Amino acid sequence: MFFNKKKKSFVYLDHAATTYIDERVKQAMEPFWIKEFTNPSSLYAPALKVKGFLSEARKKVAKILQALPDNIIFTSGGTESNNLAIFGIARKYQNQGKHIVTSKIEHQAVLRCCEQLEKEGFTVTYLEPDSEGFISPKKVLSAITPETILVTIMYANNEIGTIEPIVEIGKEILKWRKEKNTVFPYFHTDACQAAGALELAVEKLHVDLLTFNGSKIYGPKGVGVLYKRRGVEIQPLFFGGGQEMGQRSGTENISGIIGLTKALELVQDNRLAENKRLFNLRNYFWEQVQTKINKVKLNGPKLEDELLRLPNNLNFSILDVEGEALLLYLDNYGICCSTGSACTSASLEPSHVLSACGLPYEYSHGSLRFSLGHCNTKADIDYVMEYLPEIVEKLRKISPVNLGVVQHAKYK
Amino acid sequence: MKINKKIDGRDAQGNTWLYSDIVKDHFFNPRNILFYGEEEIYEADASGRVGSPACGDEMVVWLKIDPKTEKIKECKWQTFGCGSAIASTSVMSEIVTENNGLTIDQALKIKPQDIMERLGGLPAQKVHCSVLGDKALRMAINDWFRKTGQHQRIVVEGAKIIDEKLRITDRDIEEAVLEGARNLEDIQKKLKVGVASPEAIPEIEQLIRFYTEKYYG
Ligand code: FES
Prior knowledge:
The complex is a heterodimer. By secondary structure, chain A is α/β, with parallel strands linked by helices. Chain A contains 14 helices and 13 strands. In chain A, helix 3 runs parallel beside helix 9. Chain B contains 8 helices and 5 strands; from the N terminus they run αβββααααββααα. By secondary structure, chain B is α+β, with helices and mostly antiparallel strands. The site of FE2/S2 (inorganic) cluster has 9 residues of chain B, from helix 2.
């Protein structure tokens, strides 16, 4: 109809969904597909060699987390790690209490576990975040009862990039335990979004369990880690050959584990420099959006403070247009991002995160999330900005809604 | 008329959709749009506005009708909605105006399936979007009946209360089916209500079957 500029085929701005594998990670994994393929549980020399690599990997991950190697459980990914942590603790300690504290903005892999436990007789408190997505440590503390066996709060939010005050929450929990002279509640954090950008030293964070995975840090999909403090016990989800210290049976995904380990080392080594680069790029993006498109609203924490928001996350709402339509137009120009619109969810409910932050329906509807990463440069942002304003203009032209002028039918 | 069930692009999480080329064509090049602002000067004979309770979208349809032949001369629209909402309304506006236009009685016979058929199918979760344009059309036609004093022809899709205790109407059930409900339990979940009065259950179940057949049969 009116676009005739040169199209790029692929501008990837959805790193919070998943990442490509770093070339160096791929190289590290390669020997384990055909050459070093033996089962580390076997007793011959080649298998012992693989076993050696496995324990090397465990040590390396442990070092970054400042934990002990036998605190590291390799799993099939973030979802499994979250399930293992939550069900593992709940089933092991249900005689001590049947209450869990979490937040309304967790990933589905946490929320659905909690809902399942509710069906099994647990009570769960879902804490409300503030308008920028922060969970207050004081609120966590006041939700804890003598029945509480687990608190699970994410390290950083996948949709709006809010970095939760994990250290402070951890401290509050420690204080409670000391006062009440108990080891409960345990504290788990889902660090899938944080693992590439933030510090993972578990002692500083005061967490007892921590989840992350390979597929968000330029590592392979299908592999994750659950850190579990020594002394904390979990009921396994999988039974079988007793791998991973009996806590996660199944032949080790050795190439995946090697890849995840390499990926973690790489991102953690370079994180400060890369954070700074992405921070500047992201802020440039938002400046451009604000100057070229009217009626836009930032979702999540302010962009200026790097301690409050993941440096690669940009989430904003464009009023009077619907997110799925935006997404399809952007896709037509090779641009990949995501939206919190109700129209893209199976339940036809808008993003649970944006709603929990108090964002009205019609704002969530036009929300877009861009998550930047290694491959992005200023040229990508400029490319998006060549199209986005025109797309918005076109969709606004065919929309009967003009918020602030005509009232949306739903609110009449 | 069966909807092509093969074209259901939902992934395991129900998050993304695969649209047919026809849907895409109408989505990228919507026909018969009345651009925002133009409605003030457009001399429509009738108009209808609906909001979708399912996902909060909104649709407006304007008609120009030949009073003698009762044929729809023009059908213009605007939507605040997803790709399917845009494409299905675009197709609907084509159906009612092509070959010199359908008469009002013919237009009232259009079913959501006709629109979906022309689009080469829609993902099951997106059927409610195609209903949106259709509903706006019906409202516009009623508007025309009202304006021309033909009150006896107005079709009211009145809500009838099915369950006194829970205040569930047939419209509630229709919407819930469009949002994916297929049995009593789904309905209760969607409407956030508890167990229905036992005597209402057979009728509720019958309505579920009726609307499932109507939209997905
Ligand atoms: S209009 Fe919302 S899903 Fe189609």
